[in-house]
């Protein structure tokens, strides 16, 4: 392995990085990104990469957007910080909350600001618990999410997350967090089961789980419209239309985690609109500010707000909030980002580019290493397999998807590998059609190079 550059060596000696094998990372070191423009980022040697993941599914408007930079600097000069505690306020937060209510896909009464997707989901859970205490239902507290879901990493959000890598040795999930089946047809449908039949079975499974636990103990169900970090899993046809009545029947509060899907990723402003369901509440983050600054939001319906009002009146306070929640500079940037989404018709344009993106993605399905290439809108997942017919995966220790990531970097493309050897794609929504073609050309070459390596090492035959 090549020796680390000075900057890389300093990194290894000073940082604990998220989501990496901390041990092997000490030898491999980081890829250090120095600047970005449009859909490209550049490393410290000046090499350009197409940012095929929009950072972490978040830089929807690409890099170097002068309007967002201007919004931040103007607000920073005017008022660099103000909080929302104890009755204080500021106009960027008010304006942003008004804007979010206006564009919300379901009736929303109020908005609560946080700094990250994890905090938004953590807040959702606390609100659900507070709400059920307010309603005199102290036992209705369990929360259901799904295997392979990703909802973040705070103690409660990690408990919602349904990925073993986020649980193991962290002593989560906490009691009271339940996981129902993952809606991935390719992996979990029975032989000959149609998408609709699979969806019916999953809805019945959820119903059974709630009945078994006791509906008087189950408070909420949370779902990403399309699962992201679990491997870009698009639910089977009719899934949410069958899940919704189950939640309604048992008075279970339905939360849409729009942290990835919100603001156009699926070709609609919110993911639930594309998947055809009406949640009670939504969690927003990432593209809310196009990731220029950290900001997240919880969209709260009237019934929830009424309960928060009543309970805080009774006990004297609504004791929840983050110092930086609704930070004025982040809020000003988010207001500007939403203005750009609307003025530039970013969502409609994403929808218009989606057929090309999905056609090029589907084209990878024919590659010998690819078991399934799947996606919706401008999000895609490429699942690698050792044997297409049996869908057998490569042994995890071979790190085949990680190898594609490295070959892609050599080609000037950033993609991500998630558990189960799935490559994920989620480029900035402002990507052009020629850049989409270039992205897939580079990924195709990376897959070919990986296939050569797999063949040389005879990895397809090793369990
Ligand atoms: C759907 C979803 N929810 C929540 C989160 C957590 O967000 P954060 O990393 O900002 O805490 C993520 C992050 O990727 C996500 O994809």
Your description of this structure?
- The chain is of the alpha/beta class.
- The chain is 43% helix and 15% strand.
- The protein is built from 17 helices and 15 strands.
- The chain has helices at 6-14, 22-28, 54-57, 66-78, 91-103, 117-134, 155-160, 164-167, 185-188, 195-213, 239-249, 271-275, 302-315, 328-343, 346-363, 400-411, 433-456, and strands spanning 33-37, 40-43, 48-51, 110-114, 142-146, 177-180, 218-223, 253-257, 281-284, 296-300, 370-376, 379-384, 413-414, 416-418, 422-425.
- The strands form three sheets. It has a seven-stranded mixed beta sheet, with helices on both faces. The protein has a four-stranded mixed beta sheet with strand order 1-2-3-13.
- Strand 11 and strand 12 (379-384) form a beta hairpin.
- It is globular, with a radius of gyration of 22 Å.
- The two termini are 27 Å apart.
- The mean pLDDT is 97.
- Bound molecules: pyridoxal-5'-phosphate.
- The site of pyridoxal-5'-phosphate has 15 residues, from helix 6.
């Amino acid at each position: 392995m090549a020796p680390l550059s000075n900057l890389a060596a300093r990194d290894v000696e000073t940082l604990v990085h998220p989501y990496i094998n901390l041990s092997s990372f000490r030898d491999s070191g980081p890829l250090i990104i120095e600047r970005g423009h449009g859909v490209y980022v550049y490393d410290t040697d000046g090499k350009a990469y197409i940012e095929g993941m929009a950072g972490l599914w978040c830089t929807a408007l690409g890099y170097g957007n002068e309007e967002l930079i201007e919004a931040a600097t103007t607000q920073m000069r005017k008022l660099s910080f103000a909080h929302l505690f104890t009755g204080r306020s500021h106009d960027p937060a008010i304006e942003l909350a008004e804007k979010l209510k206006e564009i919300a896909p379901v009736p929303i009464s109020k908005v609560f600001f946080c700094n990250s997707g994890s905090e938004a989901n953590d807040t959702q859970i606390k609100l659900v618990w507070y709400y059920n205490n307010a309603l005199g239902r102290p036992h209705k507290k369990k929360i259901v999410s799904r295997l392979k879901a990703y909802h973040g990493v705070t103690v409660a959000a990690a408990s919602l997350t349904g990925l073993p890598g986020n649980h193991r040795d962290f002593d989560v999930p906490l009691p009271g967090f339940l996981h129902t089946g993952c809606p991935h047809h390719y992996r979990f449908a029975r032989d000959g089961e149609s998408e609709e039949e699979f969806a019916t079975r999953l809805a019945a499974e959820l119903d059974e789980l709630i009945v078994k636990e006791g509906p008087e103990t189950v408070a909420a169900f949370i779902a990403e419209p399309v699962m992201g970090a679990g491997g870009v899993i698009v639910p089977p046809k009719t899934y949410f239309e069958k899940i919704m009545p189950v939640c309604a029947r048992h008075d279970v509060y339905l939360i849409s985690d729009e942290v990835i899907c919100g603001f156009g990723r699926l070709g609609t402003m919110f993911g639930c609109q594309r998947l055809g369901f009406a949640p009670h509440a939504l969690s927003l983050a990432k593209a809310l500010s196009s990731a220029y600054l950290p900001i997240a939001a919880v969209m709260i319906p009237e019934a929830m707000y009424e309960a928060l009002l009543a309970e805080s009146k009774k006990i004297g306070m609504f004791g929840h909030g983050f110092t930086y929640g609704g930070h004025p500079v982040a809020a000003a940037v988010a207001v500007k980002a939403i203005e750009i989404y609307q003025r530039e018709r970013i969502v409609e344009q994403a929808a218009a580019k989606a057929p090309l993106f999905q056609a090029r993605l589907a084209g990878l399905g024919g590659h010998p290493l690819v078991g399934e290439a799947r996606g919706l809108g401008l999000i895609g997942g490429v699942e690698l397999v050792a044997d297409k017919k049996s869908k057998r995966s490569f042994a995890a220790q071979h790190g085949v998807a990680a190898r594609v990531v490295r070959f892609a970097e050599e080609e000037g493309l950033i993609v991500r590998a998630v558990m189960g050897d799935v490559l994920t794609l989620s480029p900035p929504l402002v990507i052009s059609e020629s850049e989409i073609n270039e992205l897939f050309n580079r990924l195709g070459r990376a897959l070919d190079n990986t296939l050569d390596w797999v063949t040389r090492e005879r990895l397809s035959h090793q369990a």
